[in-house]
Amino acid sequence: MKCSICTSKIDVQANGYEGGHNAFPISNGRCCTRCNDNEVIPMRIAIISSGRAMPTQALKDILAEQRKARALAKVSLNHITKQVNEERKNNG
Ligand SMILES: [Zn+2]
Asked: How far apart are alpha carbons 83 and 92 in whole angstroms?
């Protein structure tokens, strides 16, 4: 099984368990011990100590959606800029 955060192979834990750790709220699915210790646990502690509610959606999914939204906004903006420039050219 691969880690849903770093995509490397999930390690076997000391007790022989091969299923990794719950990767939420960083991502959905399972993660390796290194990602659990370095990303998942610190993120949970940070959220709890900030007094915020635990996210209902994985942060990886939220970031992917934001990237898509930004890409879409950029396309629209480029489109508008192109239109404005063409109108200027035609009027000038
Ligand atoms: Zn990992």
From this structure: 14
